[in-house]
Amino acid sequence: MSIISSLNIAKSALNVNQFALTVVSNNIANMNTEGYLKQTVNLEELKGYTPYTSSKGIQIYTGGGVGISDISQYTNQPLFDYLNGQNSIYGDLSAQLGAMNDLADIMNELGDGALSTALTEFYSAAQRLTTNPSDSVLRINYVNAAQTVAEKFNEISNAITTKKNDLVGDINYPASVEQSQAGRLTTSANSIISQIAQINDSITKMSTTDTPPSNLINQRNQLLQELSSIVDFTTSSNTNGTINISIAGVDVVQGAEQVAELNITVGDADNPAKVQIQTLDDPPKVKVSDISDKITGGELKGVLTAASSTAEGLTYQKVLDQINLMAKTFAEAVNEIQTYSDGNTGAMAIGIDADGNQILVPSTEPLFEIPANGEFDASNIKINQAVYDNPNLVAAARVEVDGGGNPIDPRAIGDSNNLKEIIALQNKNLGELGGVTFSTCLKNLVTKVGLEAADLNNQAEAQANVVDQVSTKYYSEGGVNLDEELIDMVKYQRAYEAASRVVSACNEMLQVLVALGK
Amino acid sequence: MITRVSTSLMQNNLISQISNNQNKLYELQIQALTGKKVNSILDNPVDAAKILSVLEEQGKVESYKTNVNAAQGEYEAMDNALAIVVEKIQRLNELANSAGNEYNTPENLNAIKNEVSSIKQTIIDIANTQYDGRYIFSGTNTGTPTFTMSDDGTVTYGGTPSTGDYKRQVEVSQGTYLTLNAAGDSLFGSYDAATGTGTGIFKTIADLEASLDKAANEDADISSEGFAEIRASITSIQDDLRNITNVRTQYGTYAQKADLSENSLSDTAILLESDRSDLQDVDLYEAYSNLVYQQYALQASMQVSAMTLQQSSLLNYI
Questions:
Q1: Which of A203, A468, B63, B182 would be A127's cystine partner, CB 3.0–4.6 Å?
Q2: Which residues form the domain of B244?
Q3: Dihedral sign for Cα atoms in the order A272, A275, A279, A285
Q4: Residue B144: C-alpha distances to residues A323, A356, A410, B139, B192 (Å)
Q5: Least confident of A146-150, A310-314, A360-364
Q6: Which among B7, B141, B315 is the nearest to A414, CB-wise?
């Protein structure tokens, strides 16, 4: 037993508390670092022997000071995996919700310039034209109203297609697939995967004991969480601290090595973008040709679902198909009336006779230009330029015709029987649209989009709550609490102060000893 | 149950609480500013569909109103025209009455004939009345003058025949139409000078003119035959007058129907607007008080945040 051993013990206390303060300092420094988990210094008594003979003649021992057994960090792997799983589900829902909200904005029939407003205006223009069928101003008004309807269809089709192309690219321009949202998500997923492989590599190099460096684990966990919002995956741990990641049932990271990556390619009309998993070999070998059915979550899943024609639920393509059907039905129904002829009666436009008088002539020009491929859709419906230039070509009249299809009395320019047929379209149940009126069909579609968006919104909100709760639980158990750190700081500071007092006490005792020796 | 709370989590929570409150405030502001609670189909998809139905109905009612107004204009033009015609036929009646007196000198008769001819011309002019650029008595031949008179006195009808289905109609409620036009041939008839045949007032006038010429003849027999014809023509004049008055009354009924339609359409418009308002408009008192309440909530969450961030830390005490 010596004073020196007391000094040594005090020295260990000084070292340890100083180091503990470093850990506290690091905790405080990282209190706002995303994904950082609090580190805790675990102290233990050092096994030194400083024997002393007791009055009963027995050797008694005291410890050898303080040491640091390890620095522990909060881990709850099952909770972390669960958090990532929930995060993936949320990513899927939020991507679908974003897409559906965009769709709802496009289909917002309550806003300005809605399709239903354009249609109502069209029928109003037809009604007004019945009051004076030969009036050129009312004819121009009617033609313009028809043009507005066509333009509205074009706008909606255009907006939906653009949004869809934003998601998965345009199948006609392969380069656009990589620029699309799905392409960007694939790129970031690949970047995260390769970073994780690098961290795994660093861990194998640095880790000399069973506990890998906590800062690398923190980084890797953060990356895993980012990856989980893009695509769902499963992990498995290796004994050396590295992890394997597999997406869609195929390993992409095996320990320190990245073995495969995601690759986005042009798909087909139903699914314009296909995400594959391929090896890093040159040329790469495709391991999964289309992951969309094999993954269950993440934004990538949501984006691919929203843009797919074959996925369940209301997708962009399905809405577009419905809009196309309506455009086709509308254009064909109007054109049929515009150029109607059954041998007894016929639709009549206004022409000019030799004396310059207005007379009825058989109507041959359709109101909507027949597209090159003969199939109307929302993108190609447009007003017939000939009718636009000469609104007299609008067939307002439907009168009796002779054998040659010519009107029996060509002077009847005040007849509006053909317009009556146009107006009747407004309330007519159309077989092409499933036996409902045009406006009911549009309303149904709009309601479906709205309800789908509302439903997704509820689901996403609920899922956000789940993620929040799990994340709160995970990070409230593992995150930095400033008050706690401050208390630790004071605790170690005071211990350091006390140990230094022990040193000075030992010093005084040594001085006394030295003085004794004089 | 959370037993431990990390500081950044607490701060993040504060931020998300504030932004939640801000979002709600924003929604309420939009509602208060637009006065509408359903601004987008996302706000309430089912009500949005109902609103769309109401908007469509409103569009229809607007069209019907325009149609009714057009019909009313045309009826008024028609009634004004027929009022003048009736007046002229009554004058014709007076002239025939006075011309029937055998003491009339040939000069008198000539003067009367001149007035009769001028009345014929006036009736033709009136029958050719245009409203909003169209001949209202020409049936569907709205671009063709109703009557043209050639030099020999033939009056030709240019419109569509009253016997066929040549109605100009406008819709005033779904499936209900108002007929705008009265055919000129049934109202005024026509006259062919070559054969001396015709119908209606034009035939009557042509006959009267011929009778006046006869009455002015030097031959006493022919003259007295002419006077007799003149007296007899009064019956035809009154028949024609009755015919025109009947048609005028009939269209007066149509005009009343148009007025009724206008009233009921106005009522419907009010009902539809109130339906739309119920579905779409926000109760402003409610919106305003919600807005104020939400402002307090936001303020409170900010105060709490400030307190938590600044004061609730050991840093202030060590």
A1: B63
A2: 54-276
A3: negative
A4: 44, 12, 11, 9, 19
A5: A310-314
A6: B141
Task: Tell if the CB–CB gap between B52 and A426 is shorter than 8 Å.
Answer: no
User: Minimal Cα–Cα distance from A103 to chain B, Å?
Assistant: 10
Closest in A414, A444, A487 to B142, CB measured: A414
Q: How many CB atoms lie within 10 A of CB A108?
A: 20
Task: Count up the domains in chain B and report the number.
Answer: 1
What does the alpha-carbon distance between residue B318 and residue B316 come to, in Å, rounded to a whole number?
A: 6
| Contact of A449 with A103, CB cutoff 8 Å | yes
CATH classification at residue B257: 1.20.1330.10
C-alpha A126/C-alpha A143 separation (Å) is 9
Residue B40 included in any domain: no
Go through chain A and tell me how many residues it has.
518
Q: Tell whether B11 is covered by a domain.
A: no
Q: Is residue B19 assigned to a domain? A: no
Phi-psi region of A175 (alpha: psi -120 to 50; beta: other; left: phi over 0): alpha
Task: Report how far residue A215's alpha carbon sits from residue A209's, in angstroms, rounded to the nearest whole number.
Answer: 15
Render pLDDT for A100-119 as a digit per residue (tens, 0 to 9). Answer: 999 988 888 887 788 999 99
Burial class (CB in 10 A: 0-12, 13-18, 19+), A355: exposed
Is B292 within the bounds of a domain? Answer: no
Separation of alpha carbons B96 and B94, rounded Å: 5
Of A478, A432, A237, residue with least CA distance to A334:
A432
B239 touching A, CB under 8 A?
no
| A271 touches A260 (CB < 8 A) | no
Residues A417/A359, Cβ–Cβ less than 8 Å? no
